[in-house]
Amino acid sequence: MKKRIFSGIRPSGSIHIGNYLGAIKNWVEIQNKYDSIFCIVDLHALTTPYQPKELIKNTLETAAIYLALGLDPKKNTIFIQSHVPEHTEMTWLLNTITKIQELQRMTQFKDKSKEKPSNINAGLLNYPVLMAADILLYNTNIVPIGQDQKQHVELVRTLARRFNRLYGKTLTVPNALIKKEGAKIMRLDNPLKKMAKSATNPYNAIALTDSPVLIKDKIKKAVTDSGKEIEYNPKKPAIANLMTIYHCFSRLSFNEIEKKYKGKGYAQFKEDLTNVIIKGLTPFQKNKKALDKKPDYVNKILQDGAKKAQFIAQKTLKDVKRKMGLV
Predict the structure, then answer these.
(1) How many CB atoms within 10 Å of residue 260?
(2) What's the pLDDT score for residue 112?
(3) Which domain holds residue 270?
């Protein structure tokens, strides 16, 4: 039997190239190797301020983006998190074995609390427990993630081992799969922070649906480091980030990029980077436009995916409840 992978993205804004290069591109590349389950984690999106109508729109948009980028519904289970209620029930059960201190030291909780101090809700604190429920319900072996989610997966592993120790071997302890290059794409306006859907400045990221004109404008305005050499150097985070994007879209190595632009400045590099991104996104944008005309097709995939996911989740939850002594 193939090993199983589980992953998902919050539908809390426009999906950008950071989401693609750090996660979805990897999903597409490995979908033939694993039994794959991919979720639109709409319940996670409730932990930060949102508009209900926008959430509906973004959830369906995210599903279409998954498909347009190449996730095959015949090979993968694709569904919306809230369509499988076992996720929330499993979260409560896991809450009873999760220590408050473990949640309070989560980096993402600390960061979100600083960003929105007026919105430090219990859901935000319990975000990693819901994530654990997502993963553990499906006996997941591997979780493909970006570097920033490593701490959360470590907690998932801790909870799985703790449950098995308390109640008997029941849950699969998953491993994280982190892609080296492209695992963390930084903001165009601030290369010290991760590219984010929630950032106030839209010029921090390139959305997958951005027009060629807008992509050109965003790359043109992207910050650069002092000097003009095109070289990959962690001490020059701005150009290192742009080179990482170039590398991911072109498949040229960093050495090849450096040789190609030796003696050339940022202007030429940015112009070529723009063209590489536009060329890389063209097939996706064409697929996305076609899917936008077939909402019933996308909804059918989500409904079928939820049924498949629930069949697996129900079996795991039943076993968990029995082991915990619930009649």
Answers:
(1) 15
(2) 83
(3) 202-289
